[in-house]
Amino acid sequence: MNLEKFFIKDDNEFELLKEKVMTIFNEKINLPEQVFSQEFGNFKFEEFDWAMSGEFWKTLKKLAVHTNDEFVLTAVIEPNPVDYFHKEFKYYNWIKMSIDLSTDNYFELLELGPEESPADAVLYNSYTVVWLSPSMKWAIWGEREYGICVIGLNDTVHHNSKLLSSLKSWRSIDSTVLSWIGANFMSEESRQKFVETIFSNYSQGN
Fold first, then answer.
1. Which end of the chain is flanked by fewer CB atoms within 10 Å, N or C?
2. 67 lies in which domain range?
3. How many CB atoms lie within 10 A of CB 201?
4. DSSP-derived secondary structure for 118-144
5. Does the structure show a pLDDT above 90 at 158?
6. Alpha-carbon separation of residue 16 from 86, 122, 156, 168 (angstroms)
7. Helix, strand, or coil (residue 58)
8. In the predicted model, is pLDDT for residue 204 greater than 80?
9. Which pLDDT value is given to residue 206?
């Protein structure tokens, strides 16, 4: 299979997809601030490293099936897809992943970097990554620095039992999630400030 065809190369298509991303996320800020638009809630967390594995694709496929989406967009926000990636390699580090792909295909796509710079593959050179459904019913924001991903559900699907059943391993913000985060801080003071802010923004009381 020619996996390169799943990467976004057309500028107009990129702009259309970017509009969806910007509708859901405030890409100018980062965790622990609230990166989701007001229409999203029911936040749950998973580990970033898991998102970089083939197993993660099983969850993404289930979510896409439940929301009748034909693909999942995997998009790198940082490094900048335009100012860095497209400028250097003439295509975008955004991938339209058809739901008929296998778990192996997912990992291979993440691992597939530019021919002249394999180290720029999403698997290796990505600090902030989002995954979302084109129907905009669910979306995931991930940051490598803090080791976490957070999924938000659109208000219209908050109580979709089939959708929620696909998120069994995901956790509301709790001591386990905070332990994932805490491992990435040297300073107790900065860790505590981060924890307080992310709990305020992503607890189910919001």
1. N
2. 3-202
3. 17
4. GGGSTTTS-SEEEEE-TT-SEEEEEEG
5. no
6. 16, 21, 22, 32
7. helix
8. no
9. 47
